[in-house]
Design a protein that fits this description.
- Helix content is 31%, strand content 14%.
- By secondary structure, the chain is of the alpha/beta class.
- The longest helix is centred in the N-terminal third of the chain and has 21 residues.
Length: 486
């Protein structure tokens, strides 16, 4: 990115200058003059920047309201993650979103799926974010994109690739140089695809988020945290982003968010209860901008081994959404449709030291179920939008698509299997003096193992009285095999 390249070039210049100043001031002045000329020329001629310099954001945040192409606008959005939905169902779910009265769809982007190995990118099939965005446009919807790098989302490692941890010194979400290099490489690919889809270029994307709930990670006095957010801001702008930029944080972190951000970045709030107080907090932090609830939590997610979470009943949901709309705030329903955590992609929480993995289903007790069916929350939402904000709804909403047909496939009997011990001769192995975390293994082009299982084997002397296993984070099965040795 231009910003990063110029920053590194200027740091090199300053280093050289300090060395020269001690020897010859005249020479140093000549160096400064020459470098200034070169930098100005670089800024003017660097490719990829001139095409967006003259453009401006289509969605503008000024005063208490948004303006979209000169007309007053309210964001009425629902969160639906393309990577949690089978592509065959994308249109069905998006049509239900539009039929409810919403005008915008919001999605995260999972870095760990889009770059599974350093430098190897995948934007195909279920990861075809370009097709998802274009489909939303064809259906008449605006789009909000939250590309990370960190996304939370109850997703494995918050979307950060496991291969980052192959570096034992890694510090994610910081100014650690190898991390920033990896972020830039990823963002260059992301925005090469998404910049042409901005509203200012005729596409549907009206806003992008910087990072995610960063004030939960650092405090307001963190100088490095502020530098990191500003770095991402400049990086995104240098890669061609001209649309509205925003962050999202909890309702008790609004002042902290304001202290960390550039002035033109919109602050938005995330919450589930106490809507009036939450909206007051975001307005107090940024009184000259419209209030936006970027994450109104419509339900909640489940953990393995824990009771089912409801989050909000249909009645509580209706009361909270009504309060948000009456206060004149824009809203993004997180989630409108949750979908599924396929594979090993479910995330986890640590609560009071207890590791709590999220289940495969991301139903979230949302207005649309995991299967895409309408729920009482959907009916309440559609009614509320028509009653509270009719001026921001399409004059002719499409009919609600029917729920898809379900089928009972009956019982499946497993008749053949292979014991895992029979596969060991065909699997890669690595010898080490101590157990290694899977991310450190020399596999997958030396980037480590991201998901799945690792079999550790060692010899335990017969004199051992106790075997201790520490730092087990997920699931461990221990088998002792007695060996008869001569």
């Amino acid at each position: 990115a231009m910003y990063v390249r110029v920053q590194r070039l200027w740091n090199t210049i300053l280093f050289r200058l300090r060395w020269k100043m001690g020897r010859n001031n005249r020479t140093a002045l000549l160096i400064v003059a020459l470098c200034a000329i070169l930098l100005i020329g670089y800024l003017l001629l660097v490719p990829g920047d001139s095409g967006t310099r003259s453009k401006k954001a289509v969605l503008e945040a000024s005063g208490s309201d948004f303006s979209l192409r000169g007309k007053r606008f309210r964001i009425l959005s629902g969160a639906m993650h393309y990577f949690r939905i089978v592509p065959d169902y994308w249109e069905h779910r998006l049509m239900k979103l539009k039929a409810a009265g919403l005008n915008t769809v919001e999605t995260y982007m999972p870095w760990n799926l889009h770059e599974p190995v350093p430098g190897r990118f995948d934007f195909s099939g279920m990861l075809d974010v370009v097709e998802y965005v274009r489909l939303a446009q064809r259906l008449g919807l605006h789009v909000i994109v939250r590309p990370g790098p960190y996304i939370c989302a109850e997703w494995d490692m918050g979307g950060l690739p496991a291969w980052l941890l192959h570096d034992p010194a890694m510090r994610v979400r910081s100014m650690y140089e190898p991390y920033l290099v990896a972020v830039e490489r990823y963002f260059r690919q992301v925005f090469k695809l998404l910049v042409p889809l901005q509203a200012s270029s005729g596409g549907p994307i009206v806003a992008f988020q910087i990072e995610n709930e960063f004030t939960h990670y650092v405090n307001a006095t963190s100088k490095e945290g502020k530098r990191y957010l500003n770095h991402l801001y400049k990086l995104m702008r240098s890669l061609g982003v001209v649309e509205l930029l925003f962050t999202s944080d909890g309702q008790y972190s609004m002042k902290n968010a304001a202290s960390l951000l550039p002035k033109d970045v919109l602050i938005t709030v995330n919450f589930q209860k106490h809507a009036e107080a939450a909206i007051d907090s975001v307005r107090a932090a940024q009184p000259d901008k419209p209030a936006v609830v970027m994450e109104f939590w419509t339900g909640w997610f489940d953990h393995w081994g824990q009771p089912h979470e409801v989050g909000l009943t249909a009645s509580q949901f209706e009361t909270a959404v009504d309060a948000i709309l009456r206060r004149g705030a824009s809203i993004n329903l997180y989630m409108f449709h949750g979908g599924t955590n396929f594979g090993f992609m479910n995330g986890a929480n640590v609560v009071d030291g207890e590791y709590q993995p999220t289940v495969t289903s991301y139903d979230y007790n949302a207005p649309l179920s995991e299967a895409g069916d309408t729920t009482p929350k959907y009916t309440a939402l559609k009614h509320l939008l028509q009653e509270r904000v009719p001026e921001f709804l399409s004059p002719s909403l499409p009919p609600v698509p029917a729920d898809l047909q379900k089928m009972d496939y009956g019982e499946a009997h497993m008749t053949l299997y292979i014991p895992i011990t029979s596969t060991l001769p065909y699997l890669p192995f690595h010898e080490a003096n101590l157990p290694m975390p899977m991310e450190s293994l020399p596999v997958n082009e030396n980037s480590g193992q991201a998901y799945g299982f690792v079999l550790y084997r060692t010899l335990v002397p017969s004199s051992a009285k106790e075997v201790s296993i520490t730092q087990l984070k997920d699931l461990g099965l221990v088998e002792f095999v007695k060996q008869n040795r001569p």
